[in-house]
UniProtKB/TrEMBL annotation:
It holds the Pfam family DUF1189. Keywords: Membrane, Transmembrane, Transmembrane helix. The chain crosses the membrane at residues 28-48, 171-204, 216-237, 243-259. This is Maltodextrose utilization protein MalA.
Amino acid sequence: MTMFQLIRSSFFQFNTLTQVRKVPFGKIVVYLLCLSFLFAIPMTFQVAEIFQSIRADGQEIAKKIPDFSIQNGQLKTKEQTKGFIYQTDSIIFTFDPDNQRSVEQVTQEDLGNLFNIGLLKNEAVLSLPQGEFTSAIFSTNPIILPYSSSLFTNLTGDSLRQGLAENQLPWFLYVLIFLIAVYPSFLTLVITLVIMSLAFSIFLRARSAQWRFLNTLKTLVVCSTIPTLFAAGMLFLNATFDATTFIFLATSFIFFNVIRQEKKEIV
């Protein structure tokens, strides 16, 4: 079967899905990657919206940031400046040049869906909202970056204000967000379909049906086309939609209809 035939079968010709077992596994992997790209689109839009909100809030915070520079690995202000905490809709920003607050105190202010950013005397702190996306991408949270890092060599109050005042996000950031979003999307589909394949292949062999694990996995990947697209659409409408459970149930329904069709052909 060609890729076009696989797509057509997944939408309009369920009775031909019994032939998916004969398709080379490499083609199925490519098909699964294409589904992952589609499944990643809602997450990309959601993360892009978050970045837009952060950009707008960052411009608001920029007005509060005093003049400072990084000297000998420490944050120094030009004038005697008191630290402050400023909260917007998406960010809790802490500016502490006097070392009055610890990293633990800054990160303890995390209120769920807010980014917690701190410029302390000796390091910068970034605490991310807990979620599937951040857990998949970042192994540590909070992220602590000492000012001795080369990242902060040219950081000043003026350069930070100018950076936060940018009117729009760079185009390549959207591409990067999409590519990063593909990873958890692909992982979610792979884990779901592999678990289903193990369970269904054991069930079918117990009933004397000639369905090996790999054949079951191939068929399930193609059977998951409509459920994956529908789940992606629902995630646009409701970010809390349980896409994994829906894909599991809907793909199972289509798969067992394929099994029934095969039995009819044998009879």
